[in-house]
Amino acid sequence: MSDAQFKGVIPPVVIPLDANRQIDLVAFERTINRMIEAGVDGLFFLGSSGEVAFLTDAQRYHVLQEAVAIVGGRVPVLAGIIDMETLRVIDQAKRAEGFGVDGLVATAPFYALGGPREVERHFRVIRENSNLPLFAYDLPVCVHTKLDPTMLVKLGTEGVLQGVKDSSGDDVAFRWLCLQNKDAGHPLQLFTGHEVVVDGAYLSGADGSVPGLANLDPVSYVEQWRAYQAGDWERVRQIQDHLAHLMYIVRNVDATVGFGAGVGAFKTALWQMGVFNTNQMREPVQPLVGKDVETIVSVLKENGLMDAEAPVRA
Amino acid sequence: MSDAQFKGVIPPVVIPLDANRQIDLVAFERTINRMIEAGVDGLFFLGSSGEVAFLTDAQRYHVLQEAVAIVGGRVPVLAGIIDMETLRVIDQAKRAEGFGVDGLVATAPFYALGGPREVERHFRVIRENSNLPLFAYDLPVCVHTKLDPTMLVKLGTEGVLQGVKDSSGDDVAFRWLCLQNKDAGHPLQLFTGHEVVVDGAYLSGADGSVPGLANLDPVSYVEQWRAYQAGDWERVRQIQDHLAHLMYIVRNVDATVGFGAGVGAFKTALWQMGVFNTNQMREPVQPLVGKDVETIVSVLKENGLMDAEAPVRA
Amino acid sequence: MSDAQFKGVIPPVVIPLDANRQIDLVAFERTINRMIEAGVDGLFFLGSSGEVAFLTDAQRYHVLQEAVAIVGGRVPVLAGIIDMETLRVIDQAKRAEGFGVDGLVATAPFYALGGPREVERHFRVIRENSNLPLFAYDLPVCVHTKLDPTMLVKLGTEGVLQGVKDSSGDDVAFRWLCLQNKDAGHPLQLFTGHEVVVDGAYLSGADGSVPGLANLDPVSYVEQWRAYQAGDWERVRQIQDHLAHLMYIVRNVDATVGFGAGVGAFKTALWQMGVFNTNQMREPVQPLVGKDVETIVSVLKENGLMDAEAPVRA
Amino acid sequence: MSDAQFKGVIPPVVIPLDANRQIDLVAFERTINRMIEAGVDGLFFLGSSGEVAFLTDAQRYHVLQEAVAIVGGRVPVLAGIIDMETLRVIDQAKRAEGFGVDGLVATAPFYALGGPREVERHFRVIRENSNLPLFAYDLPVCVHTKLDPTMLVKLGTEGVLQGVKDSSGDDVAFRWLCLQNKDAGHPLQLFTGHEVVVDGAYLSGADGSVPGLANLDPVSYVEQWRAYQAGDWERVRQIQDHLAHLMYIVRNVDATVGFGAGVGAFKTALWQMGVFNTNQMREPVQPLVGKDVETIVSVLKENGLMDAEAPVRA
What we know:
- The structure is a homotetramer.
- The first copy, chain A, starts with 7 loop residues before the first strand and ends in a 12-residue tail after the last helix.
- In chain A, helix 8 (198-204) links the parallel strand 7 (189-192) and strand 8 (208-209).
- Chain A is an alpha/beta fold.
- Chain A is built from 12 helices and 8 strands.
- Chain A has an 8-stranded parallel beta sheet with strand order 1-8-7-6-5-4-3-2.
- Chains in contact: A-B, A-D, B-C, C-D.
- Chain A binds chain D through residues 48, 53-57, 59, 82, 84-88, 91, 109-115, 117-119, 121-122, 125, 141-144, 255-260, 282-286, and chain D through 48, 53-57, 59, 82, 84-88, 91, 109-115, 117-119, 121-122, 125, 141-144, 255-260, 282-286.
- Chains A, B, C, D: This is Glucose dehydrogenase.
- Chains A, B, C, D: The active site is at residues 137, 165.
- Chains A, B, C, D: GO terms for molecular function: N-acetylneuraminate lyase activity.
C-alpha cells in the first residue's frame, strides 16, 4: 500500500471540446488551472463526468497525457480505469500507470451480472496487477451494484483498497462505512461524490469530496472544506445551501435525461461562464440548446456565477 | 390549514404484542410513557413501523383508541392513514379523525401504477375530505413512487399539505425540498425518517425527525434535537454516531429480510431491554430467535442500552 | 381442497361507472351478459382491472353482491381479496365468502418488505382461514414480489393453492411452472393474465387465460381457447395477432401512464363501442379525453370492433 | 443495406478455456463443428455468453480470428461489438470488420445514463461508420435500457438496422415488434435469445433464435426450427418442453448468481459432456465445483445429454 494520503476536494474534471468534438486544450488548461488556483487538493480524470464511457482508448490516454502535463505535479492526479470486467480494467490500469498518475479509481464489474463474491475478487485481482493506490468507485446508478461497507473496510485493512469514492446516494451506508472504517483504524480514505450534500458526508466523517459541481465553483467547495477542518459547521452548511441552489442547473433540463442533462448542464454552464469555448458533447449525446441554455444562465446569475448583465452566448 | 406547528422528535411507535399476538396494553403504555418522559415532541401511530400494513381495520382503530387515551394530550398524535388508493385512504382518514388525533399521514397511492398527475390529485382529494393537518409520507421503498419536491412545496403553499415525512433515502431531493420550502416561506414542516443520518437532515434544515430507533433510545434523539437547536453540531454528530452504531441491530439479521428484520430487531431489542414482554410479530412475519437475538443483545450492550451482565431473555 | 376445476377464458371484469363515478348497474349487467353469451368459462371480479385498489370496502362488496346476482350461477365467479398483509387479506376473504363466490384470488403481501418465507406463510395462513379454492395472483408490477414456481407447485401439492393467475410477464418462469406442475401431477390450474401472448402460454400448457382485453373482444378469446383445445395452432396464433393489434389502444395514451392509460383505454373503448355509458374512472385517476379517445377509436375501427362510419362519442 | 438474410438457429458460442484460463483451441473447434454439423444457420461470437465483457480487446480479436478460420464460411458469423458508448462501439466495429465477419451486433449504450434520443442516435452513428449488417441487441438485464419496437422498425425501414436479437424477456413487446415489422414489410430479421420459450417467439413470427442452450443441444434447436418451418406446432412445443427441462441446469446453482451461474452451468455441462476439457471461467468469476457440478450432471442425465452410467468428471 502506498504511503500517499488523499484528502480534501478532488473534482472530477469535465472535458471541454471544440466545435469538431475534439478536446479543446486551451480550455482544458484553463479549467484545470482555475481549479488548482482555487485550492483543490487533487484532480480526478476519466471519471463519469470526465466522459470516460464515451472515449475510445486512444482518446482516454490523450486526455490523461495532457492532464498529467498540465497539472505538472501541483496536485495529485487520480485516473478512472472504467471498463466492464476485471481483465479489461487491468488493461486500463496498466496503461494509466504508464502516464504517471498517482492513483486509480475502479468501479465494481458491470454488464455481466454477478454477486458479492465476484465484486470482492475483482478488486483483489486488480490490486495484484497494479502498484498504485486503488480507490473503489461506488456508483450503482451506472454499474447496478452497491458496494458493501463491511467488504470495503476489509479490503482496506488488507491493503487492497486505498479508499472509496462514494457516489451511491446511500447516505446510511456511507455513515456505516465511515464508522466501520474509523473503528478499524481508518485504513480507507473516504470521499463523497454527492455534491449537493457534501456537508452531511463531512458530518459523517468523510475525508473529502469529489464534486462534479466544483468544475463550476471550486472556490466554494474549497472554502467549505476549510470551514469543516476548522469546525465551523454553520459556514459549512451555508456554503452547501449555495451549492445546492447552484445545482438547480441540472434539475429542469427538457431536452433529455441522464448524462446529457447532468454533464450537459455542467458544460453549458462552463461555456456560458467563459471557461469553456463550447458546450459540445460526445456521440450519441447532443449539446443543450435554446430554452435549456437560458434556464442554466438564469441559475448561474441568481447564484453569482455570472454577471447579471452578461448576455447569453450563442 | 391548521395553525398547529409540528417540530422536533416524533417517533413512529412500535406496537408490543403478547404471546397470542394481541396488543399488550401494559407494554404499550410503558413504551409510550418512556418516550414522552424522554421529551419527545409527538408520537406517530400506524406508520410502517407501527404495523399498519399488518393490522385489520378493527385492530388499527383499537391501537388508535388506546394510543390517544394513553397519550392523554401530553404530546400531539399523528396517525397513518395508509391504504392503496384515494377513496380507501379517505375512509381511513374519516375513521382516524373520529378518534381525536392531531394530524394525518398519507403516502402516495400504491398497488395500481400511476404517474405524477395522479399523485398530486390524490393529496388534493384527501385534503378536500378532511380538516386535519395532512402530512405526505415519502416512502418509495414501500409505495414505489418518489414525491417530487416542487410538487410538495406547491401543495404546501396552497394549504393542501402541512408537512412531509421523508423516508425516501434521497438526501439530495431532501436538501432541495428544504431549500425550496424555505424560499417559499416555509409552508411545510419537514421531517426525516432516516434515523441513521438525522444530523445530515438537520444540516439541510429539517424541522424534526421521525426515527423508529427512538423507540429504543428516545433520550439520545431528544438530546440531539436540543443540541441542534443550540447550534452544537459536534454534539449533534457525536450522538448520531452513537445512534448509527446502535442501528447495527438490524444489519446482521439472518432469518429474513425487510420488515421482519427491521421492526423484528426493534421488537427484539425492546423485549430484551424489558420495555416489551415479547418480540412477537404479526402474520406472516415470525419473531427473531436464537443467534439473531444474541447478536442484537451484543449490540445493545456495546452501546449501553443493556447492562453488560444482563442475561439474554428467552 | 375443492373439487372445482377452473379452465378456459375467465376475464377480469372492468367496472362501468356513471357520470357521478358510481357503478352503472345497467352497463354492468350488459358487459357481464355480453361476455357470458360469448362463451367465457368464468368471471373474475375485484382484480386489478376491476378497480379493487380504488374501491372502499363498501364499494367492493357492492360490486360483488351485484356481480353474483347478475351472473346467477351461469359461470363460476372468482373474487379478488387484495390487501396489504395477511390479516387484512383474511378479512377480505371472509367477507367475499359471504357473497357466495366460487374462488378467491390473493397476491403476495405488499407494502411492507418481506422475503420468500413470509410469502409462503402468507398463503398458508389464508388457506387456514378459508374453505374456498384459493388462487395465487402473481403480479410483481403491483406487489413487487415474483412468486417462485417451485413454491407454487409445493403449495398446490399440499392443497394450499388451487391455481395461479400469472401476470408476472416472466414467460420463462411460467414455462417452468407449467412443467413442474405437470411433473407433479397437475395439482394447480394455471392461468395467464398476459393478454397479448396468450398463445405462447397455451403452448406452455396453460389451463386458461384471464385477459383484460376480453372485456372488449370476448368472442375472439373464446374462439382462441377452442382452437387450442382442437390443436389448431395456426388459428390460435392468427387470433392472437388480431388481439395483439387490438391492444394497441393502450400503447399511445398521452395523458398519463399505468392504470389510467391501461384500464382507462379499456373503459374508453367500451364506452365508444356502446357497452359502457361513460369512460369515468375512480379518484385519483381521470378519464381519457380528446386525442387519446380518437386514437382508441381508430384502433377499434381498424380491428373491426367499431363500424368504420361510427362517430366518436363525446 | 446488405442483401444478406439471416434466419434460423444462430447459437451464441460459449468459449472453452484450458486450466490456465486461456482459450482451448481444440475444444473451440470441437464445439463449433458440433454445432455446424447439427445444422445451425449461423454462429454468434463475442456475445454475453461468449464472455465479451470479460475479454481484453486482444483476447476478443484472438477469439474472432480463430472463429472465422474454424467456421471457414460454412455458416455466417455474427460478432458482438459490445462497449459502453458510441465511439467505443465504433472502434470495436472497425476491428471486427477487419476479421471478415458477416454481421455486427450492438447493444444500446450503457454505463452513462441516457434516454431514447441517445439510443436512436447511437445506432445511426454506428451505421454511418460501418458497412456490415447491424443487429440491435436488446438486453436490458445488462444495459438497463429496453429498446422500443416502434423505434426499431423505423431504423429497419431506413436501412440502419438489419435485425434484432431480443433478449429482453418482454414477450409482449416482442409480439408487437413482430407485428409492426410485418406490417412495415418485414425490414428486420427478428431473433429471440430466450432459449426457454423459443416456441412462443416462433408463434409470434420470429425469424430465428439465438439460444445459449444450443451450445449443449444444437440438434434439438435445429429440429425445432425445422418443425416450425413445417408448421408442426406439437413437435415445436414438445421439443421446447425438453429444452426447458434441460435448462434446469442453471436454476439451482448455489455458489453464485448471474453470469457465473448461467454460463458457469453451460461450461460445466459442456465439460461433463466431453465437449470442453474444463469448466474454467474468466476473472473474477470462479468455476462451479462440488454439489453444483453434481446437480448439473443429474439434469443432463435426466434429459438424455449424458449417459446414465457416466461418471462425474473431476
